[in-house]
Amino acid sequence: MSFFLFLFVFLCFCLSSCFYLSFFVFVFLPVFICLSISFSFFHDSFSLSITHILPMPCPGPELPSGLVFSEVTETSLSVSWTKPKSRTLHRCSGSQHPDWEPVSVMVDSGDSTLALSNLSPGSSYEVSVISVLGLDESDAIKDLVMTLPDPPTTLRAINVTDTKALLLWRPALATVDRYVIVYGSEKGSCDCVHVLLAGSGGDGEVPRDLKASQVTPRSALLTWKPPSAAVGNRYLLTSQQEVTIDSTVTEFKLSRLYPMSKYTVQLQGERGGSYTAAISTEFTTGNLRYPFPSDCSQVLLNGMHESGEVEIFPNGRQGKPVLVYCDQVTDGGGWTVFQRRMDGKTDFFRGWENYSNGFGELSGEFWLGNENLHNLTSMAPMTLRVDLRAGDESVFAKYSTFTVDNVRRNYALKVSGYSGTAGDSMSYHNGRMFSTRDRDPAPFITRCAMSYRGGWWYKNCHQANLNGLYDTNVNHQGLIWTAWKGKDYSVPFTEMKLRPTSFTPPTQG
User: Fold this and answer.
1) Residue 23 β-bridge partners
2) 332 φ, ψ to 5°?
3) In which band, very low, low, confident or very high, does the pLDDT at 91 lie, cut at 50, 70 and 90?
4) The CATH fold of domain 296-500
5) What are the residue ranges of CATH 2.60.40.10 in the chain?
6) Residue 420 near residue 395, CB atoms below 8 Å
7) Lower CB count within 10 Å: N or C terminus of the chain?
8) Residue 367, class by beta-carbon neighbours within 10 Å (0-12 exposed, 13-18 middle, 19+ buried)?
9) ∠ CA 41-42-44 to the nearest 5 degrees?
10) Which CATH superfamily is domain 65-146 in?
11) What are the residues facing 199 on neighbouring strands?
């Protein structure tokens, strides 16, 4: 329009003139149009003709070149390119899928490298770079790049026997074709533990004949002869802890040892802070079917048929051992006990941290801890058993599915598959998060943990309340199992325990 307006003004100015003019005009459209125009004036009239129209290419910004990817990781990469000679901005765009909206980043003309982050592992991206000059853009240079797959995590070995082990890991987020497992024995390695026995002695005299006997995979009995002229009143055993022993003692049992491990024991006399020369002995603990049992069922298969306290390794040998109470009698044994109420000597109206870590004494009342429950129930499918006693009456409830989720999900409960004689009071709590007096992740009408004085998987609020107030038969605050005794009777004895669902008790013979 501006061109024709100019032409009209020009014609008005030249009405009295008479001449012929021919020239080229470039009209700036998306592409250049070349017009060859001629016109003439004769006083009161003129003629205009366009004699040629010629499309011409638009001289836009130069293309970048040489697209290169470097420093490629699971979630990031760097892209670089060769800048054109002319000074232009650049726009880098990337998309993980052809149908997805690409993400674009403007880059200053002085830069030719861009770091891309927050990418998905093991994913293919199309990256394009264009030059930008004003409103004009060049064609794009493009290439494909794939981020590295992320590694699997949380590798651990459980169910370790003398010939096999079960490996568990958290899979990679990226899609992978296969996993490669590399393993082998540590040549020349030896589990060597040095134990120092320091005891009272005479002038330079030393204990004699230090021996290890009754060596089992988890224990050994040390015996020795004292100096003939003993002076003092103690022996000091130094291993992973220090134990003071009366000077009249001539033997000591080492327990909680590692199977298939070599131990070196030294014994010295001590007097006034000075030690005599040391005598020593060595022994190697024996083998077990499960050297590092993950629960009480493996302890039973290792040959421990008596109920009692024992160390287990839910996270494998490299994980922290957990001291638990094993019930090796009830229903074939192999049960890891995680709760017991029997006399009211232990306070169960506690906060979140106590319930997470556990509290009480394994020989009396205790809660093993929600973190331990999560670790135990995440190894393999578990069965829950609840034993209840009142005087001469005893009943039980058994659930074929039992899982406690992690702390991020507030130790949520998954329980189903009831059988037994106590009636079903736990299925009501299925799917509920754990709550305590100081933390209620999903309060309903009332804060159940405060109202019913315990830590539990409350709903609205309970059909079972085995961590409530001991010997309290009012306000539904006692040790309640509604399906057996109703809500106004506090059960005197409760035990909660778990065992792998696939476990088959060994035959006694």
Assistant:
1) 37
2) 90, -5
3) low
4) Gamma Fibrinogen; Chain A, domain 1 (3.90.215)
5) 65-146, 192-284
6) yes
7) C
8) buried
9) 105
10) Immunoglobulins (2.60.40.10)
11) 235, 269
| DSSP string covering 242-270 | EEEEETT--EEEE-SPPTT-EEEEEEEEE
Name the residue among 296, 485, 499, 504 with its Cα closest to residue 395: 485
For 224, 228, 258, 282, 397, the CA distances from 267, given in Å and listed in that order, are 9, 15, 21, 12, 52
Q: How many Å apart are CA 234 and CA 356, to the nearest integer?
A: 40
Q: What is the mean pLDDT of residues 13-34?
A: 40
Give 228-238 pLDDT, tens digit per residue.
Answer: 654 444 555 55
Rounded to whole angstroms, the Cα distance separating 424 from 94 reads: 56
Q: What is the pLDDT averaged over residues 492-506?
A: 95
DSSP, res 318: T
The answer to whether residues 436 and 442 touch, using CB atoms and an 8 Å cutoff, is no
Between CA 311 and CA 257 the distance in angstroms is: 10
Q: d(Cα 362, Cα 365) in Å, to the nearest integer?
A: 7
Calculate mean pLDDT across residues 144-159: 79
Q: Which two tokens stand for residue 185?
A: 């024995």
Q: Can you tell me the distance from the alpha carbon of 492 to that of 496, in angstroms, rounded to the nearest whole number?
A: 14
CA–CA distance, 71 with 2 (Å, rounded to integer): 53
Asked if residues 103 and 86 have their Cβ atoms less than 8 Å apart, the reply is: no
Mean pLDDT of 444-448: 81
- Residue written as token pair 């014609």: 11
φ and ψ of 372, to 5 deg: -65, -40
Query: DSSP for 4-35?
Result: HHHHHHHHHHTTT---EEEEEEEEESSSEEEE
pLDDT at site 241:
53
Rounded distance between C-alpha atoms, residue 157 and residue 323, angstroms: 19
Domain 192-284: which topology?
Immunoglobulin-like (2.60.40)
Residue count of the chain, please give it.
509
- 468 has pLDDT over 90: yes
CA-based torsion, 96, 100, 106, 110: positive or negative: positive
Backbone angles phi, psi at 429, to 5 degrees: -95, 0
Give CA–CA dist 200/376, Å, rounded. 45
Which two structure tokens, joined as six digits, stand for 478? Answer: 């006692």
Which one-letter amino acid corresponds to residue 341? R
Which segments of the chain belong to CATH 3.90.215.10? 296-500
Contacts of residue 97, Cβ cutoff 8 Å, sequence gap at least 6: none
